[in-house]
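Lab meeting, item 3. Inverse folding demo.
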């Protein structure tokens, strides 16, 4: 992961000229910048070092990896360091045509593809003598195209999740330049599958360790969901009892379903015990057959939940299942990138929000969930992207106000104070002239209290940002909101109002 070759190119005009033509790695183009502002989803630094004649740009990442971004919205790691990337580009001047090749394609196919591309290049200009000169000057060994394609393939596979490129303004992700990545559930479920194999082998120590660890237990249950072996009943009984310790979870319902599908009525006392763990489990496992039910009744109950909520195909699971489990295992960037691509998909095709049985209606719950998940990850720009689209799609006056309230809170947290002020102003306009009667009693309920609180919190943020005029203006608006609240709603806000007024007076 060195940049020895890059230093030589910067020091030697002849070598830099050769790199620029015919190998299309032009140091001078770095001064022109990329076609748009970009950043890594992971937040790491990027150093622009070169460009090519198609509008593509070469960046060096914090660990030295070389990231290439084309002008059409695709990007990928093409070397673990600048030296490796240059060695690949010089050895494979047509490397753009090989991003979908892998060592599994075999030497014959790889060599044929490289030969065809290089013959096309030679129709326009030379590459052989130039390649020899540049390779020798930079100290690169002569590797076969098969080996170089293998190096390129390995580099491209490292792009996701740590080196995913985003449009800095819109926040949408570049497409992967290279082979597709495995579906999210595969890396997320790997540990669960390994634990399930241990449990099936009868390892008592492993059984206790998995059962007592909430994350390992959830993963093992998910693995059992998609690999339903007849001999799993005893370990499922053990896991369902322990999962109840976490109160009502999707995995508790799943464990109960997997037990119930066996139709063994001797499990009914266990399932009832689990159901009665607390109020939430009693509600979440409602409808369970009572004592004395038949095997068919138990199976029918389990099949109904299985068909509606679970199933045996991991591809049918909502992305949130896998991103939650990824986060639980510390796979933060994997979760982030998957959520970004999910949000990108909705932006590109809002028909994905249509209700299956009411195609003219949209369900915006996925956007709300995405905003929440991004906020939990600390990714406020993506949370705001999801929240703003969610806000734009709300219809009732109540929902429009509630959505703007959350949007303003996120904008304040992200430091977008002026935008937050505008969002609250739009909220107040809806309060003044609602489009329906859903806001008739907003002054006497928690919504009114929350609106006032956000006005005061944003006023404090403006004062702390040394914006006294803006703070005074918003304080006036906050006091007007407080004056409209019922006595009960206003009671919980007055202390914050006094604190805010004191702070604004101090900065004024």
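The presenter then showed the designed sequence:
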């Amino acid at each position: 992961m060195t940049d020895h070759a890059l230093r030589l190119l910067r020091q030697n005009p002849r070598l830099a000229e050769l790199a620029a033509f015919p190998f299309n790695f032009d140091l001078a183009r770095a001064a022109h910048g990329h076609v748009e502002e970009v950043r890594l989803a992971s937040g790491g630094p990027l150093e622009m070092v070169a460009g090519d004649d198609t509008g593509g740009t070469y960046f060096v990442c914090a660990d030295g990896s070389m990231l290439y971004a084309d002008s059409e919205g695709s990007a990928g790691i093409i070397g673990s360091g600048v030296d490796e990337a240059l060695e690949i580009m010089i050895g494979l001047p047509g490397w753009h045509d090989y991003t979908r090749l892998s060592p599994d394609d075999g030497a014959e196919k790889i060599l044929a593809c490289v030969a065809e591309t290089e013959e096309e290049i030679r129709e326009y200009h030379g590459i052989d003598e130039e390649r020899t000169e540049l390779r020798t000057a930079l100290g690169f060994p002569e590797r076969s195209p098969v080996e170089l394609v293998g190096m390129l393939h390995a580099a491209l596979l490292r792009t996701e999740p740590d080196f995913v490129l985003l449009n800095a303004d819109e926040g949408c992700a570049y497409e992967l330049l290279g082979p597709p990545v495995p579906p999210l559930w595969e890396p997320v479920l790997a540990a669960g599958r390994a634990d399930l194999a241990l449990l099936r082998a009868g390892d008592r120590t492993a059984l206790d360790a998995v059962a007592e660890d909430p994350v390992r237990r959830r993963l093992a249950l998910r693995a059992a969901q998609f690999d339903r072996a007849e001999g799993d009943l005893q370990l499922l009984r053990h896991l369902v009892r322990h999962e109840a310790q976490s109160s009502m979870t999707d995995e508790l319902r799943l464990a109960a379903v997997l037990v119930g599908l066996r139709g063994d009525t001797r499990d009914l006392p266990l399932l009832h015990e689990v159901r009665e763990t607390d109020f939430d489990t009693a509600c979440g496992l409602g409808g369970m057959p009572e004592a004395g039910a038949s095997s068919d009744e138990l199976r029918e109950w389990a099949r109904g939940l299985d068909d509606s909520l679970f199933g045996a195909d991991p591809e049918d699971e909502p992305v949130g299942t896998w991103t939650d489990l990824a986060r639980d295992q510390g796979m933060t960037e994997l979760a982030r990138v998957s959520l970004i691509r999910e949000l990108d998909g909705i932006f590109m095709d809002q028909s994905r929000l249509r209700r299956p049985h009411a195609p003219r209606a949209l369900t915006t719950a996925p956007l709300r969930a995405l905003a929440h998940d991004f906020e939990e990850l600390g990714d406020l720009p993506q949370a705001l992207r999801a929240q703003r689209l969610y806000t734009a799609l709300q219809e009732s006056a109540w929902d429009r106000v509630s959505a703007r309230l959350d949007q303003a809170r996120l904008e304040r947290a992200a430091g977008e104070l002026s935008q937050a002020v505008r969002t609250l102003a739009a909220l107040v306009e809806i309060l003044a002239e609602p489009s329906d009667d859903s806001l008739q009693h907003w002054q006497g309920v928690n919504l009114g209290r929350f609106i006032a609180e956000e006005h005061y919190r944003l006023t404090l943020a403006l004062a702390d940002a040394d914006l006294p005029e803006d703070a005074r203006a918003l304080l006036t608006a906050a006091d007007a909101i407080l004056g409209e609240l019922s006595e009960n709603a206003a009671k919980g806000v007055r202390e914050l109002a006094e604190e805010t007024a004191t702070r604004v007076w101090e900065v004024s």
